[in-house]
Specification:
This protein is globular. The protein has helices spanning 3-20, 59-66; strands at residues 24-27, 37-41, 44-52, 74-82, 85-94. A 5-stranded mixed sheet has the order 1-2-3-4-5. The protein has a single domain (3-94), classed as 3-Layer(aba) Sandwich (Trna Endonuclease, Chain: A, domain 1). The protein is α+β, with helices and mostly antiparallel strands. The model has no long low-confidence stretch (mean pLDDT 88).
Amino acid sequence: MTNYSNGRRAEWAARDELIKQGYTVTRSAGSKGCIDLVAWNYDGTRLVQVKKGSGRATPKEREALAAFDIPPHSTVEIWHRESGQWEVEKVRSRE
């Protein structure tokens, strides 16, 4: 299985989790950008980068995510799945 396939599978799992939490979600497939998923509901917007397995966000990726200009009631997050559990790190928040 390719890295792209593995990454896509992780993004779909994160998407499914966000949908369960009541968000509408879109995936930026093939964008090669910092944001993999955009999720929103009446409480706000979540911009999510998904990491899988042993992958972690690099300092350069974290810097790019922290620099996003986001509207009120929004967060920029890194989601990492390990042992079936999601670890969610808020990189930037405007609540």
